[in-house]
From TrEMBL:
Biased composition annotated in UniProt, kind: Polar residues: 282-292
InterPro entries reported for this sequence: DUF222, HNH, HNH_nuc
Species of provenance: Gryllotalpicola daejeonensis
Name of this protein: HNH nuclease domain-containing protein
Record domain HNH nuclease: where: 391-443
Length: 488
């Protein structure tokens, strides 16, 4: 009892002095005190439970053979033995063992649980964001982070401590966000169900960046000051006359034939190159005569189109919030913005995004520099810097008519502005260095097979490279959906 859960006896004694008790007869101060004492007892009991689980795990080491505690109790794993002895559920027994193992990787948190400072739920909430970053972080910094979080847990609610743990995770491993973002992009989808009783259910999962754009528009329409109901009215394509507001909805059959009335279709024949993802699934396919095929699933295309519709909500009748149209507010430090390495945060979202993503968002929406001192006081508020003006977007809509990647049907009003020569390399923000890309192709343009350049006549040119094969440069011409429909 002295080694672990040392405050358990004291907690019992404090409660024993007032128990049994009728809660209705307690004053407010007495009720607050009882709640604190009861919670202290629960934390001490948690400490004892974790310590027991840890010792069960230690005594069930496979090297012990027949001397293993689990073997003696007729179980193969430590959680099986714990389940047998405590009569808890198999799930709870396993979680206690795994919890003890996770705590062993963070000694400061483990000691705080043993001392009854942290309960199991508090510790688990801190470990979840912190542990993935610990393997790549400096040990001394991890130690400092844990000490700080334990101190905060003495005075703040668990939700506030979790936010602090998430902030520490960014400090420990700022570059760990990008792999999470890339995995999220692969998992995105949007699906409409069948109509039932006049209603259609939908489901989906979107990356933080896409969800934030959609949430910004929804917040504007839900704003009581807007004084209007939802009214998305299709508008002309900024003079471009491209598309009818619908994205491709084609699917590629097993033999590569294109089906449906949109999208890029498939590729026929053999001899093409295949680019595969980490799981071995084909991402893009190409031949010497066909550009890389769009292998997004229909669900992924719906997710991208839904994002494009909301992200392009620039129509005059769109409700405003504070005098401005729905805006995604991204906060990132100057150094991280310029280098593209590190983390950024979108206002209203709980998970961070990478600085690279923040930079891509700024290319389309612009940004504003704010200078602050070490105490957070604003020293200077700079002017908004537009990466492309409204008039430049209109000119691009007339020239490019939409996303210039072969076969992409996304119209100009749903596109983002892309610097052909990156601004980080000195590329200017003028028409002869700008073009239109949809979100999906803008996201992958730096790592995908396509290469862009500006032709001598002032229009974009494109080629694709797969393996050792490189095509000739050709004019990048937007493919409106009507053209694909006619061809089909």
């Amino acid at each position: 009892m002295a080694a672990v859960g040392g405050g358990l006896r004291e907690a019992f004694e404090r409660l024993d002095a007032v128990l049994p008790v009728s809660l209705a007869l307690l004053t407010d101060d007495q009720l607050v005190g009882l709640a604190q004492d009861a919670e202290a007892l629960i934390r001490q009991a948690d400490a004892l439970g974790v310590a027991v689980a840890r010792e069960f795990d230690n005594r069930t080491d496979e090297t012990l053979g027949e001397e293993s505690l689990a073997r003696k109790l007729g179980a193969r794993k430590p959680w099986g033995a714990l389940e047998t002895v405590t009569r808890t559920s198999a799930k709870d027994a396993r979680e206690r063992i795994l919890e003890a193992r996770r705590l062993a990787k963070l000694p400061v948190l483990e000691a705080a649980v043993d001392d009854g400072v942290l309960g199991r739920a508090q510790a688990a909430a801190i470990i979840e964001p912190l542990l993935p970053a610990c393997d790549r972080a400096d040990a001394a910094l991890v130690h400092s982070a844990c000490e700080n979080l334990v101190d905060l847990s003495r005075v703040l609610p668990a939700t506030a401590v979790v936010e602090a743990a998430q902030a520490w995770a960014l400090v420990l491993d700022p570059d760990g966000i990008e792999p999470v973002e890339n995995a999220a992009v692969e998992k995105r989808f949007f699906r409409l169900g069948r109509a039932t009783d006049g209603l259609v259910k939908f489901s989906g999962a979107l990356p933080v960046e896409q969800a934030a754009a959609i949430r910004a528009v929804l917040d504007a329409y839900l704003n009581p000051r807007a004084g209007a109901s939802v009214r998305f009215t299709p508008a002309a394509d900024d003079g471009a006359g491209a598309g009818n507001g619908e994205g491709g909805a084609s699917e590629t059959t097993a033999n590569g034939d294109a089906a449906g009335t949109g999208g890029t279709g498939g590729t026929r024949g053999t001899g093409g190159s295949v680019l595969r993802g980490p799981s071995g699934t084909p991402l893009l396919t190409a031949t010497e005569t066909q550009p890389p095929a769009d292998t997004r699933t229909p669900d992924q295309k719906r997710a991208d189109i839904l994002h494009a519709v909301f992200a392009a909500a620039r129509a005059p009748e769109t409700p405003t919030m504070g005098g401005a149209h729905p805006t995604v507010l991204v906060v990132v430090s100057k150094d991280e913005f310029e280098t593209g390495h590190g983390a950024a945060r979108i206002d209203g979202e709980t998970e961070p995004i990478s600085a690279k993503t923040a930079k891509r968002i700024a290319e389309t929406g612009g940004y504003q520099e704010v200078q602050i001192d070490s105490a957070g006081k604003i020293l200077n508020l700079g002017d908004t810097k537009r990466c492309a003006t409204v008039w430049q977007r209109k000119a691009l809509a007339v020239r490019d008519k939409g996303c210039i990647i072969p076969g992409c049907t996304i119209p100009a009003r749903w596109c983002e502005v892309h610097h052909i020569r990156p601004d980080r390399d000195g590329g200017p923000t003028d028409i002869l260095n700008l073009t239109l890309l949809c979100w999906f192709h803008h996201h992958d343009i730096d790592t995908g097979p396509y290469q862009l350049r500006m032709g001598e006549d002032g229009t974009p040119e494109i080629r694709w490279i797969f393996g050792s094969h490189a095509t000739a440069w050709v004019k990048a011409v937007h493919t409106p959906r009507q053209a694909l429909t006619t061809a089909a």
